[in-house]
Amino acid sequence: MVLSTDADRYVVNRQFRISTLVARCTYSSHELASFPDSVGLGTLLLSETQGFFVGFLTGVRHDGAVSPRIAAQRTEPLLFAHRGASAEAPDNTIESFTRACELGTSALESDVWATGDGIAVLAHDDNVGGLVRRQLITKSNAADLPDHVPTLADLFAAVGPDVTLSLDIKHPDAIDPTVEALRNLSEQYGEDLVQRTWLCHPSFELVSRWRSRWSDVRLVHSTRLERVEGGPERHAAQLFEAGIDAVNFRAPDWSGGLTTLYHRFDIYCFGWDAHLQRVSEELLDMGCDAIFSNHVDRMLAARAKVYGF
Questions:
Q1: What Rg, from alpha-carbon coordinates, does the chain have?
Q2: Buried-most residue among 46, 100, 157, 309 (CB within 10 A)?
Q3: Tell me: the pLDDT tens digits for 252-302?
Q4: Are 163 and 103 in contact (CB under 8 A)?
Q5: Burial 97-129 (b: 16+ CB within 10 A, else e)
Q6: CATH number of the domain that 95 lies in?
């Protein structure tokens, strides 16, 4: 097969290493060691090779524009501002969320707890307040929390209903107030905010139970590759069978073969800890459907380089 000059340059620039693929299938040694015997070299080679040819056919267009080496499931990736624009403002505050939107993203990430009176509020830790007066969110009424701790309703009032959210459910008790708040806010704004919100948790069993309760919520299993029992192919099949929409791995866990594998099971691929522009570019280039970063400007620059917009 003779490659054109543009295609040759594409392969070199994308660093698609055939020799490395045969030897390692782009997986690190600790990743390979975690795969069961049932997920052998043939499966991984097929996934990576499929991903390569999809990327090869779509990566260089006649108009000179670019697109990812491996196609994502979404035509436009979600660029989640992690706890808002937390590189520029205090995280999980209205200031941080509004700043992220000003910078140009329409996707926000946060953490959600339920207060003692059953209100969904956004904070990373249960323990909030100053050095002198600390209090537990789960033991306090929403009205008694510090002003910098917003409710879900406060967030939408500040940024409007057109944003996409990713919410880490920090405690199982927070899921019902969160879903209820999203439904009520959907009625208020006349927008389906439930479908625009991704609800994340590290327990596969828990998110599977949530699916049995609600058919319309978007669910994400947030975990690490090393914690996946039985290997990624079995995990992807389990997610598909349970109706879980996406998997969220830390950036170093992802490879082109892995995104292709999960996409074969119709599972969206999310990558977190993409704080460097280089890491954001790598995740987008290997077909991740969403990435998370404290730096909105770096995600936008990465998208421009990989997608051309």
A1: 20
A2: 100
A3: 999 999 999 999 999 999 999 999 999 999 999 999 999 999 999 999 999
A4: no
A5: bbbbbebebbbbbbbbbbbeeebbbbbeeeebe
A6: 3.20.20.190
**143 and 51 share a domain?**
no
Q: At what angle do helices 296-307 and 94-103 cross, to 10 degrees?
A: 30
Could you tell me if 46 and 85 lie in one domain? no
Share in percent of the chain as helix, strand, coil (round to 5): 45, 20, 35
Task: Name residue, tokens 């590290």.
Answer: 202
**pLDDT tens figures, 273-287:** 999 999 999 999 999
* 39 shares its domain with 93: no
Helices assigned H by DSSP within the chain: 5-14, 18-24, 29-34, 41-59, 94-103, 152-159, 175-189, 204-213, 232-242, 256-264, 277-285, 296-307
**CA neighbor of 163 nearest in space, from 205, 100, 216:** 100
Four-point Cα dihedral 63, 69, 73, 78, nearest 10: -90
Q: Which residues pair with 111 in a beta bridge?
A: 168
pLDDT in tens, 6-35: 333 333 333 333 333 333 333 434 444 444
Contact 194, 183 (CB under 8 A): yes
* 220 strand-pairing partners: 200, 246
- End-to-end, the C-alpha distance of the chain in Å comes to 32
> For the CA atoms of 162, 164, 170, 171, what is the dihedral angle to 10 degrees?
70
pLDDT, position 49: 53
Return the HEC string of 252-271. HHCCHHHHHHHHHCCCEEEE
